[in-house]
From TrEMBL:
Species of origin: Flavobacterium rhamnosiphilum
Official protein name in the record: Rhodanese-like domain-containing protein
Residues annotated as signal peptide: none
InterPro entries per the UniProt record, alphabetical: GlpE_sulfurtransferase, Rhodanese-like_dom, Rhodanese-like_dom_sf
Recorded superkingdom: Bacteria
Length: 103
């Protein structure tokens, strides 16, 4: 499900079962992240699938990348793998108005 930044943040902040997932490359991740994000690079191919499958499917995943394209694809993949609640940040981190922190 694609969410605007306002909806993504307001839903995340009230979600006690939330996980923030950054699907950018390690180099991009190291440039700055949304607080508490975990990084699994979608470009890892099967490695991405393997790491995603190890995640808790009962959690709600708030997914972002640079512009929102890779994270939308990541949400599709996660849904195919049985994740019920994945939320894509439309516009990605380049349109992010919130705080960006060091990983």
């Amino acid at each position: 499900m694609n969410l605007t930044q306002e909806d993504w943040v307001s839903q995340f902040e009230t979600d006690e079962n939330a996980v923030i997932l950054d699907v950018r490359t390690e180099a991009e991740f190291n440039e700055g992240i949304i607080a508490n994000a975990i990084n699994i690079d979608i470009h890892l191919g099967q490695g991405f699938i393997t790491e995603i499958e190890a995640l808790d499917k009962t959690k709600n995943y708030y997914v972002y990348c640079r512009s929102g394209m890779r994270s939308a694809k990541a949400c599709e993949i996660m849904n195919e793998l049985g994740f019920e609640n994945t939320y894509n940040l439309v516009g990605g981190i380049i349109e992010w108005d919130g705080e960006v922190v060091e990983p």
